[in-house]
Amino acid sequence: MTSTQSTAPQFDAIVIGAGVNGLYTLYRLRELGLSVRTLEAGAGVGGTWYWNRYPGARLDSESYSYGYFFSEEIQQEWSWSEEFAGQPELERYFNFVADRLQLRPDIELNTRVASAHYDAETASWTLRTTDGRTFTARFVVFATGILSRPLFPEITGLDEFSGAYHHTALWPHEPVELAGKRVAVIGTGASGVQLIPSIADQVEHLTVFQRTPNWCAPSNNFHFSAERVADLKSRWREIRDTCRETPGGFIHSPRDESALDVSADERQALYEKLWNATGLALSHSNFRDLLTNREANDTVSSFIAEKIRTRVHNPDVADQLIPKDHGFAMKRPPLETNYYEAYNRDNVELISLDKEPIVRATEQGLETTRRNLDFDVIILATGFHAGTGPMLKVDITGEDGAALQDYWADGPRTLLGVLVVGFPNMFIVSGPQGGTAGNIPRFGELQANWIVECVRHMKERGYQKIEATPEAEEAWVEHAIGTVEKTLLSQANSWYFGSNVPGKKRAFQLYAGSQSTYRSRLDEAGREYQDFKFTSE
Ligand code: NAP
Known about the structure:
- It is built from 18 helices and 20 strands.
- It is globular, with a radius of gyration of 23 Å.
- By secondary structure, the protein is of the alpha/beta class.
- The longest helix is centred in the last third of the chain and has 22 residues, at 440-461.
- The chain folds into two domains: 3-45 and 103-149 and 386-536, FAD/NAD(P)-binding domain, CATH 3.50.50; 185-225 and 254-380, no CATH class.
- Strands 1, 2, 3, 4, 5, 6, 17 and 18 form an eight-stranded mixed beta sheet that branches.
- The protein binds NADP nicotinamide-adenine-dinucleotide phosphate.
């Protein structure tokens, strides 16, 4: 690679992405006295909550466990209206935060980064945007998330379809008219499960194409009273401390006992209680061996199967909605509100793709192996090229021009999820191998704090360049893979392993260790920085 500049870089740091973790990273780096610019592809801030504006999009962690904990002012000035805030409220929240922290002057919207090249001569990064602009910085921080690159199904002829088709993660800003329309939804992951009941009573007819059923848990969402808002505000430190201690950074934590240590009646009573609790309680406040012992897992999976059979009137449809290939929570369980009841409606049809595959799209709709179906709108709730996907969409080259695409060909390789060997001065928040199986802002906060302290360390000593050592990275990769190997997660095909992307090599994309382990590893690495090589000019 040739040197791209002879003068000092324009910025100390560039953060890519103005989502939940990008905004926080910008704030913290700026606090350090650095010149920082955030480049954001969207026309607004909020990341996930800017893009995923499909009907029904909402949180699956309790609102008050998802917001920022670092600021008393933000905690007191912002009032959540529901246990699980919907997309419009979250988008408002991130706009409020951007204003409250005066972040906007440092955010360049409508700016998609196409390439990022490390320049060894100047120990800095040159970024080019899709509209031809160039930015240079000493440090680059990828805050591009793990679920920001939509995955489109390979359906022949989709562009010839005369109606509209939309991916849930690229939902238009203008209202999409669905009332009285014939609508197809492809995909029954968390996005599809939220969308389907939200539109079922508006559309004339809804056809759901399901490749694999998912185990869903009721969200039991509810609107807040003024008393609850006041109570949450008064207890925010206690909530923060709880979220710091739980393995996943949620308000939920697992029980000490095994599902097999208690009687069938006791198990049933607990499952009923968790079924009626909020959010991820059923997966995260369950018996400790839910995800390590298949026999234990079977007990809760059977419980949910019975619930599905009770809620879905047609036994054949109920059976199609019950997963056979994996147990509960072996994939991230969608949270639902009236999802199963949607299939009791006369205007909703479920098509299992194993029995009736889609052959192609036509001008009028979709052709399956059995029939031609006419639609006005096709909705693709087909998920994401997750984990490594968002960063690999950018042409990233490091030391000696080596491409990240090649380095990650067999799966992610990072040190602590924050640095990559061969890519000096490139930090990651909320990317692969960095705690993203948990509550994303909670783990992102840990990473951003670590990065800021590392940059402070460099600044104080006049270091220009940081590199991760290969031995330390290798040890982290082994550790990160080890966090999942003994769990039942590794027995399912999910986006956690890239299984949803045709041709993607199966590799664990996340970090499944506990928050306390992750925090102590970060703390340890930041104490003496023995796993890193620093260079001064
Ligand atoms: P997803 O879980 O990957 O689900 C995508 C769905 O599309 C699956 O049913 C998948 O089937 C199907 N699909 C993919 N490609 C297909 C194809 N070519 N033909 C037919 N069907 C196809 O994606 P998601 O629902 O967008 O959720 C992804 C993650 O985002 C979630 O696990 C969660 O972490 C996060 N999320 C969270 C919320 C929330 O509640 N806050 C909401 C949405 C998303 P297979 O299962 O067979 O692959």
